[in-house]
Amino acid sequence: MSEDAKTELIRLLPRLRSFARSLTGAADQADDLVQTGIEKALRNLDSYTPGTRLDAWMFRILRNAWIDTLRARRNTAELDSEAAEALVGEDGRITAEARLHLADVRRAMAGLPEDQRSVLMLVCVEGMRYRDVAAALDIPEGTVMSRLSRARRALAESLKDRPQGANHQGIKR
């Protein structure tokens, strides 16, 4: 592995951890998932194409590792509060009003199917483009758009009955 690739991988760690936490719902499980993902990446470096997006490749590895974990444990993931905060806050900063409704957002996110939650996290939190999310999750770009649309619609439906004082601006790209 080149020094540049190692440096880029190290820079990706916070994003990988954030994505892992959105999948697992727990910091310790997220750390384990990131470690598993890094180990798999290092073992399979020959499958990475230099010049392509390392982040998309790593997100795919993490997602696949999480699916393997779920199959083995037959568990469901819960949303972590930090991931929910990142979704409702501006540039990762959560407003006082959003704090009041964080539990609602957490419940709504946890209620999403994993495939919709993954797409929502990668687009809304990571700021990835649809084509990059499609590559990371190994799905067609149209599927990314439809899952994102369904996730946003489900969140809006789930959150629509909040008190009128809430100035919710929605989940946007």
UniProtKB/TrEMBL annotation:
All copies of domain RNA polymerase sigma factor 70 region 4 type, residue ranges: 104-155
SUPFAM superfamilies listed in its UniProt record: Sigma2 domain of RNA polymerase sigma factors, Sigma3 and sigma4 domains of RNA polymerase sigma factors
GO terms for biological process, alphabetical: DNA-templated transcription initiation
Pfam family, one: Sigma70_r4_2
Domain RNA polymerase sigma-70 region per the UniProt entry, residue ranges: 11-75
UniProt entry tagged with the keyword Plastid: no
Keyword annotations: Sigma factor, Transcription, Transcription regulation
Record-level Gene Ontology MF annotations: DNA binding; sigma factor activity
Family statement: Belongs to the sigma-70 factor family. ECF subfamily.
Protein name (Swiss-Prot/TrEMBL): Sigma-70 family RNA polymerase sigma factor
Protein source organism: Rhodovulum strictum
